[in-house]
Specification:
By secondary structure, the chain is mainly α. It is built from three helices and no strands. It has helices spanning 3-33, 36-61, 71-93. Helix 1 packs antiparallel against helix 2 and helix 1 (3-33) packs parallel to helix 3. The radius of gyration is 15 Å and the shape is elongated.
Length: 94
């Protein structure tokens, strides 16, 4: 595996880890309150989780067709998502 695909996969897996934590937190909130907002957040986090699963799989399996010129942009998007998820997790835990 090339280093670019490895870096993109690691960022996607970090995003999946944070999204998994958020899904568990929102699941507990929904179990306690039966409010609709945590249920909606589970759906949103689940879709983002699926997005990252597909992305990580693509980086592993189709690295030969990825252009090296697009790597900085893809990495920027992944890191921006990771930063947003970290902030979202911090806000959720407060």
């Amino acid at each position: 595996m090339e280093s670019t695909s490895l870096v993109l996969s690691v960022v996607s897996m970090a995003n999946m880890g944070i999204l998994g934590i958020l899904i568990v937190i929102f699941g507990k909130m929904y179990g306690n309150t039966k409010a609709q907002l945590p249920l909606g957040m589970i759906v949103v986090a689940g879709m983002l989780f699926l997005h990252n699963v597909i992305g990580a799989f693509a980086y592993f399996s189709m690295e030969a067709i990825f252009s090296h010129e697009i790597f900085p942009y893809m990495l920027g998007v992944g890191i921006a998502e990771l930063a947003g998820l970290i902030i979202f997790l911090k806000i959720t835990l407060d």
